[in-house]
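Posting for a labmate who doesn't have an account.
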Amino acid sequence: MSIYLDHAATTPVCGAAARAAYEVMTEGYGNPSSGYPLGKAAAKRRDADRTVIAGALGCLPEELFFTSCGTEGDNWAISAAVELNRRKGNHIVTTAIEHSAVLEPIKALQSKGFEVTWLKPDREGRIDSQAVAEAVRPDTILVSMMLVNNEVGSILPVRAAADAIRAAGAPALLHVDAVQGFLKVPFTPKELGADFVTICGHKIRAPKGIGGLYIRKDLISRVKPLLLGGGQERGLRPGTEATPQIAAFAAAVEAWVPGTREHIREVKDYAADTLSAIGGVELISRGDAPHILALSMPAFSGESVVRALGEKGVYLSSGSACHRGRPSHVFEAMPLPPKLRFGALRVSFGPGSTREEVDTLAGLLADMTQRGSLL
């Protein structure tokens, strides 16, 4: 038995994505920068794939730049925004529950003298829109806020941040980490009021190693590259393009058929109801997004539960995969009783998730609580 319920960490590569990558690796393997037919065909395929992904994101193809991952996109967006506004202020607004790919570069900026306002979440991991409005000042140069929190599934008030920037008359640019939100929560960069948006492939059944950064069209000519090199991606992200991963990313986008989001939400809602009904299991957050919920088994450590379930072939997590066993800063930032933090678990779902898998998980958790010991 193998039941995978950790889709917020990564997803199994879907067949269409794997086939697309294989085709490019074995047949369309030319370098897109080469001038002969095989290279030109690779460039044409790359451009077509960019159009597919940009269409799903709701932007122009020329506004989407390929990266190696979400972390690269987050780091690039933050450094670009600060560089663009370096003479206009010294204040940054973000939240205490961002992914480490945002937290760490902003902490580095703080150590260099930038003033940072860290917005705190409520009991379910939500950020208050009024707090966002009050945080933005005339000297704010950057607001960085994720669309969907990767550990509790809360949707953050990104549009409120854009409105706050305008109301304050601030020069701030808005960066949105949409790695967990892409395809799962309907949005476009324009609807969010975003200047930069980060996405990546491995959260939607594409391989690891491919991501994208949306840069608002009128900013592109002023953005500095994160890397220097051969001039690919119009000079802003040099390095030979990862054409197999790009093809797989586009194929995964196209495989996200109508009804996928609704199916995932139905399974998650069933899980929230079923698991929270077990004695000894407490719901931390149902999550606003369709694929993530957080719960706790206060009598056990979350890590021990994860290990015990893993030995039975059931896979979930006690927080972001990027923590590597360390306490989750997201759960730490939430005003939770210590025991709930101690036993916190994240369950996350994908297109292939089923009610039957939830029932199996529920049976194992119920057995633990009834016995008062791990499996």
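Reply:
Got it, the structure tokens are right above this. The first helix runs from residue 15 to 26.
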